[in-house]
């Protein structure tokens, strides 16, 4: 790639730049392209932005670092999510951002051999299965502040975010975020697939049973938290993906938080959901526990 971000660079000059500087330039470029409504892939020769957004299981499994294609995007998604969280906090409570090198070090520890093996197993069964790496800030966000985070995301979408506050406020920050700031990590990593993992569909109760069975051998599999779902949306947008194509999004985003306790809303029992509707409006919604659904789970 030849660039002109803060100066004229030829290919050889870019090769001599540090990883940190290259990541910074890639983030800036991704943001500019998104703002202008342009689609761009960081994979040479690729014409589809999806190939930059998604990485094959084999590609991920061959390295203990985030791929060059994914790195600037998961980092920008993390920064955008953290900026929106900080925007709703008092100045003295602002959370400082981590650098790309710190997050890469955390990734090396997080991305264990058993996760690598499972990625390879999944792709051997379905070569079309791809993954997007997301990094949610490892902080606790109160339920009403999660509403603010979702609404901040919606400002750049064609429709405002829809939030069912009546359900949201019945959960704690720990339940909705699944983060643990005491462990010293800066982020909560997750690998989101471009289609639901087969065999986990059903009612809320069936999904819980099926996930529990899978976790016997794959304890790292889980239903993503609402905070992770929002960070995933920010990451998809950092990739420049079309999140508002009428009737069809570039990539599925539906998350049903079936691991959370069901709540009575007067008309039945429900669990929360996090997703982008077909017209591009985000929703922190509800799902009846009896309804048969499939949703994204995460390698976390």
The quaternary organization reads as single chain
- How much helix is in the residues? 40-55%
> Main β-sheet, in a few words?
5 strands, antiparallel
**Strand tally:** 10
Low-pLDDT residue spans = 1-16, 29-53
Q: What series of H and E elements makes up the topology?
A: HHHEHHHHEHEHHEHEHEEEEE
Structural class: alpha+beta
Mean pLDDT: 78
Shape: globular
Layout of helices and strands:
Layout: H1 11-15, H2 19-35, H3 50-53, E1 55-56, H4 57-61, H5 71-87, H6 100-110, H7 113-125, E2 130-137, H8 143-154, E3 162-163, H9 165-168, H10 173-177, E4 187-193, H11 204-217, E5 221-222, H12 226-238, E6 255-256, E7 263-264, E8 269-276, E9 282-288, E10 298-299
Parallel strand pairs: 3-9
Antiparallel strand pairs: 1-2, 2-4, 4-10, 5-10, 6-8, 7-8, 8-9
């Amino acid at each position: 790639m030849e660039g002109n971000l803060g100066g004229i660079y030829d290919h050889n000059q870019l090769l001599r730049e540090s990883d940190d500087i290259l990541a910074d330039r890639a983030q800036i470029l991704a943001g500019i392209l998104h703002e202008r409504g342009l689609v761009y892939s960081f994979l040479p020769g690729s014409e589809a932005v999806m190939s930059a957004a998604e990485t094959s299981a084999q590609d991920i499994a061959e390295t203990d670092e985030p791929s060059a294609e994914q790195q600037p995007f998961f980092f920008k998604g993390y920064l955008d999510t953290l900026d929106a969280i900080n925007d709703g906090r008092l100045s003295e409570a602002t959370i400082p951002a981590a650098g790309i090198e710190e997050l890469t070090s955390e990734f090396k520890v997080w991305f264990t051999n058993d996760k690598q093996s499972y990625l390879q197993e999944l792709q051997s069964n379905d070569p079309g299965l791809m993954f997007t790496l997301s990094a949610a800030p490892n902080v606790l966000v109160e339920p009403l502040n999660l509403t603010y985070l979702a609404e901040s995301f919606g400002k750049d979408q064609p429709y405002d975010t829809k939030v069912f506050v009546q359900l949201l406020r019945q959960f704690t920050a720990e339940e909705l975020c699944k983060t643990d700031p005491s462990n010293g990590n800066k982020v909560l990593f997750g690998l989101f697939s471009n289609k639901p993992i087969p065999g986990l569909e059903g009612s809320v109760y069936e999904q819980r049973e099926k996930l529990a069975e899978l976790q016997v051998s794959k304890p790292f599999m889980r239903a993503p938290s609402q905070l992770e779902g929002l960070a995933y949306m920010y990451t998809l947008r950092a990739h420049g993906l079309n999140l508002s194509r009428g009737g069809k999004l570039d990539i599925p985003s539906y998350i049903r938080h079936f691991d959370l306790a069901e709540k009575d809303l007067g008309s039945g029992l429900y669990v929360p959901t996090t997703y982008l509707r077909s017209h591009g409006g985000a929703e922190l919604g509800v799902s009846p526990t009896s309804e048969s659904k499939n949703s994204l789970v995460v390698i976390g």
